[in-house]
Specification:
Bound molecules: uridine-5'-diphosphate
CATH superfamily of the largest domain: Glycogen Phosphorylase B
Helix content: 40-55%
Number of helices: 15
CATH topology of the largest domain: Rossmann fold
Distance between the termini: 37 Å
Amino acid sequence: MTSVQEVPAETEVYLLDNYLPVVGAAEIDELRALAQPLEGSPVEMVNSTAVGGGVAEILTRLLPLFRQLGVDAHWRVMEGDLPFFEVTKSFHNALHGEHFQPVPKDFEIFREYNRRNLDLVPADARFVVIHDPQPAALIEARRNHRKNHWIWRCHIDLSRPDSAVWSFLQTYINQYDASIFSSPEYARQLPIPQYLFYPSIDPLSEKNRDLEPEYIESVLENFGIDSRRPILTQISRFDRLKDPLGVIKAYKLVKRYHDCQLVLAGGGATDDPEGAQVLAEVRDAAGNDPDLHVIELPVSAPLEVNALQRASTVIIQKSLREGFGLTVAEGLWKKKPVVASAVGGIPLQVIHKHTGLLTHSIEGTAYQIRFLLSHPEIATRLGEQGHEHVRENFLITGNIKRYLTLFLYLFNS
Ligand code: UDP
């Protein structure tokens, strides 16, 4: 298995100055000032999938901006296949608190695939940011080149991890120089410094930029969705932890009172082997209700996702566990009222009754959706406040600022 593979930067690149109207000149000046001492520094971002899921979404947008700031940033994807991704998906679920009894073979597979990828990170990298557990054991490559700084960026909710999987993983994490988590609640007892970084969305990306109403209408037509009746939407990988079956149950409760439609749209991620099975279960539960649209999206369909979010009356994110939930920030940025579970990083984004509505059950989700459908003026206000909350806290420029600050700190220490 050859493992040196770099993900090309996105073709659709925006200049830093294009962000001026969104974040203001002071923010852009600050980024340039922070980046200046780091000019030419090689930065390596490593994860396990080039498409699908929030991490790939963030890296796709971060890389071109880092480069514009003079940082020599690269994104590399470790190679793996089904046996590895089955193990890492089980680890992922276990770290999110699901019951799992690992056997020694699971750990051996994890180690073996990481070993095969040890050449992934070039020896001259100054900063290496390893995203999530899958490539965590690549820290072993550090033995060959000690001068660089290794950071573990964890995007998942580690507040109640399975102890066997976490103990195993921790032997690697302890060797890093620093760790980054998405919420203060995920902090663990670690011998290395822990930093809090919020994930981010890019307001100028195809996923989030403004769209022509005609384009939005054409996407709805294409999927057979009626733009004149309320549309409830959850965009997510077909994953049990996103609780698509719970969303269907909530929709059925709402449907007794409101003539609405449900859109459950999602694609896969190459490191998530469970998607097809969950999609089949969802289709089965959806039955033949013409107002329930289960849409399988191509691996990359940012404009369609954007259009579906913008066409929605209410955005749902009924996750059972969640690292952060970028789809929530995406919905809020589009000034949509969001009804979402109070799990993981969602309460950082949805401040109850201020930027959206938090729920704890299927019935609660249905209740809040009904409330929003009957109170459109409140729905509008929540959406507008949500938009400002995202502007303040969850935009890509803020994320870059945090990375540059951490790099500078490590550079000087
Ligand atoms: N997404 C997408 N197409 C899909 C499903 C999801 O582009 O079919 C995007 C979604 O818009 C968001 C990211 O993938 O940008 C999902 O990130 P999130 O943090 O919500 O969940 P994760 O999949 O990382 O658990």
